[in-house]
Specification:
By secondary structure, this protein is an all-alpha fold. It has one domain. Helices cover 79% and strands 0% of the residues. The chain is built from 14 helices and no strands. Helix 1 runs antiparallel to helix 13, helix 7 crosses helix 9 and helix 12 packs antiparallel against helix 13. It is globular, with a radius of gyration of 21 Å. The two termini are 23 Å apart. The C terminus is likely disordered.
Amino acid sequence: MKWTKKKVTNLFFIIGVVAVVVMLFTFDVSFVELWQHICRAGLWLIPIIGIWIIIYGFNALSWLSIIRSTTGDRKCVSFLRIYKLTISGYALNYATPVGGLGGEPYRIMELSKNIGNQQATSSVMLYVMMHFLAHFLFWFTSIFIYIGLALNGHVPFTIAIDILLGLTAAVCLLAIYLFSRGYRNGMAYKLIRFLCKLPGLKRWGMRFLKRNGNALHNIDNQIAALHKHNKKSFYYSLFMEFISRVVQSLEIMFMLLLFNLDNGGGTAGLLLTFLESVLILAITTLCANIIGFLPMQLGVQEGGFVLSIALLGLKDFFGMFVCIICRVREILWILIGLILMKIDPKKSSHEIEAATNIVQPE
């Protein structure tokens, strides 16, 4: 059977639907308790779920900046199409094991309709690198937020925590250094060369390099060109990704305010509540990314919430509430992403012309 792009898209869609069904029937709480938590959230569910419209908007702007820089054409693809692919891509990443094995191939396949395979691959690789680089910058920034709150007595400061903060800082700095080298020199070709050294992958890797070596070098050149010749676009994209993490902290803050955990209210209280939300998100996402091969990071994300909430001295029932509401939000956005996969508006004449003018890899 010949696998067309439409058939592959349908396969991704089916996998996503099956994953959502499995998640719904493997909730750690009964549907009665789940409904009670949803009712407790009430109208706060609107900003909790709605804030992701803005978050995905920042993600889409980051990716779009990369696409326009690598293609040199500001009209090759519309913002709405990238916004759609952003939401659907993240939905597949949340729903499928080994985050990225669903969303990224889907994005490359769909974007190649507009700008060709090579540039679609390089733009997606660049965006994934930017996404993870922003994560490491966010975690590194959160270390100083924790230290600042610890000096003011809001969070504990022990030898064990000092060691963990030091290790986290070292890992973040190492990652930032490696990413900077990847941006300067490219990493697609080197990544395949590295896979050739792994047991069982050498024969496949050598065949892949023989067939696609020139294309990989072209992709690396496009990756290096963004950092070297388009620094404005590079830092704009990085800022959009970083600010999306900051905005995501508002989701946690809304839940804290729902329980009147506002540190006395006022400007100072709300600022402290927001900083606590940043820490909760940083610890949770750090734990979730340590083990990224589970669908929706089942169990790992909850562990991150428990750890962060314990450090901040919050009640256990609040941690359970946050976990459940975040799961509900994730499932809703996965469903939205899957629905968007089946919506394929006609491309503009400019997009069709841009796609046909791209030279395909040999």
